Structure formats: structure tokens, C-alpha cells
Amino acid sequence: MLLEDYFPSLRRIDYTLAYIARPFDVNEAKLVIQTKPQYLSLNEMFLVANTYPKDSPEFKEVFDIAVRLYSTDPVAQQNTAALEIERDAIDAGIKRLEAINTPEAWNNLGVAYAQKKEYQKALDYFSKAANAGVKAAIQNQEELSNWLKEQ
């Protein structure tokens, strides 16, 4: 009876480990991103990116690493799409943004379509984002509408 009823529960041991990971400072993160980028949070990667000039290959590389490691994160996707749009890879940026269903992404889609001179699509996305409360979209919609009236 002891062997079957009491000993099995006495041999079972459950452990719970808890720890707090120390955040990296920017200088450490710049080194870590080259060797073990999975150790960095998305925010730490963006801090590293902001230490480089926006048109530098290092800036783009950090964003590429971030979107590769955090492929389902809408912020990483949106930031990478914005970078693609700024670098005239508009179709790639649009494709990436269309997979994200957030008001901020709709505003960025409006910007991308305006750059492609597809103004009605741009206005539609600005309107959608503005109705969701994105203030930048309201301003973008007004500016594009005023510009189109002047043309």
C-alpha cells in the first residue's frame, strides 16, 4: 500500500523558475545584434537602429533582423514596410502593409498609394484610418484632398 499510494507522490517534484532579464544598453545591443539577435527585444532593436543614419545599410539591416525574428509582430512589419516605402520599394511595402489590419497600417497604405499616384485608393485608406482615430491620417487626407483640388 505504501509503495502504490504514497511513494509516487513523494517522488514527484515540481519546480518553477523565475528570473528577470537585464535589458541591454544600446552599446551592448549593437554588439549582441551581430551575434545573438534573438536575445534582444524588439524595442532594443529599434534603439540600435536609431543610432545609425536612416539611409545607412546598418539601419536597414537592423530592421531586416527585427522583422525576421518578430515576423508576426505588426509593429516590426509596419516599420519595415515604412522603410521600404521610403526607399522606393513601394510595392513591397504595400504587400507587407496589406497583411496588417491596423489603423496605422491603413494610414501608411494611404501614403504608399499616394506615392504611386493612385490617389483614390490613398484617400480611401486615409479615410479608413481617420475614422479609426489616427490623427496623421486626418491631416494626410486633408492635404491630399487640397492638393488634388489645386491640380
Supply the key terms.
single chain; 151 residues; mainly alpha; 70% helix
Structural description of this entry:
- By secondary structure, the chain is mostly helical.
- The protein has nine helices and no strands.
- It starts with a helix and ends with a helix.
- The mean pLDDT is 90.
Provide a quick synopsis of the model:
The chain contains nine helices and no strands. It is an all-alpha fold and 151 residues long.
Number of helices: 9
Distance between the termini: 92 Å
Instruction: Estimate the strand proportion.
Output: under 5%
Secondary-structure-derived class: mainly alpha
Whole-number radius of gyration?
Answer: 23 Å
* Uncertain spans: none
Largest sheet: none
Order of helices and strands: HHHHHHHHH
What form results from the Cα inertia axes?
A: elongated
Question: Helix proportion of residues, in percent?
Answer: 55-70%
Oligomer: single chain
Number of β-strand runs = 0
Estimate the mean pLDDT confidence.
90
Strand and helix layout:
Elements: H1 2-11, H2 26-35, H3 42-49, H4 57-69, H5 74-86, H6 90-98, H7 103-115, H8 119-131, H9 135-150
Helix pairs in contact: 2-3, 3-4, 4-5, 5-6, 5-7, 6-7, 7-8, 7-9, 8-9
